[in-house]
Specification:
With 163 residues, this protein is mostly beta strands. The protein has a single domain, classed as Jelly Rolls. The chain is built from one helix and eleven strands; from the N terminus they run αβββββββββββ. Strand 2 and strand 3 form a beta hairpin. It is globular and about 45 Å long.
């Protein structure tokens, strides 16, 4: 099974669980309304390094169509160099998000985005990120969402855990 197909299945399962938990918030077809105290957080899919959390606000990341999601990261969280097949629009809500372009994570080659900061990353643009404080970002895109690591060994799903 391809990584993209596997990721699509993971996001579909995650989104269905979050939609079911949110109940009537997602039942409306004309608009989506999610009060801050109703945002449903859960573990991020295993395609992201351990420690992140996700909240799907709109859509299904594993399917075609508009998607809005939030990711919550602890301090010193790193996302190795990767790219997406779709344009990603990211706004920092809290914390400090450092983003750079290229094939390898380099903390010195990043720009810092504080709350309110925004970056739009075109499809196929190789980029990486890290946090210096607990951070929440909001991402909007046209699904299905995928993440393809420049170095396949950086994919957390490919890493062997030592016991």
């Amino acid at each position: 099974m391809s990584i993209t197909r596997h990721l699509t299945i993971q996001f579909s399962i995650l989104a269905l669980g979050l939609v079911a938990a949110a109940g009537p918030v997602f039942a409306q077809s004309a608009h989506v309304l999610v009060p801050a105290d109703k945002v449903q957080w859960g573990p991020a899919p295993p395609v992201l390094p351990a420690g992140a959390q996700i909240a799907v606000l709109e859509g299904n990341p594993g399917e075609k169509g508009p998607v809005t999601l939030r990711l919550r990261f602890p301090a010193n969280y790193e996302i190795p160099a990767h790219w997406h097949s779709m344009t990603e629009h990211l706004t920092v809500l809290t914390g400090s998000f450092h983003v750079g372009m290229g094939d390898k994570l380099d903390r010195k080659a990043t720009q810092t985005l504080e709350p309110g900061g925004f970056v739009s990353l075109p499809a196929s643009m190789r980029h990486f990120a890290w946090t210096s404080a607990p951070t929440v970002v909001q991402i909007s895109l046209e699904g299905p969402f995928d993440i393809l690591y420049v170095n396949p060994a950086d994919n957390p799903q490919k890493q062997v855990t030592k016991r």
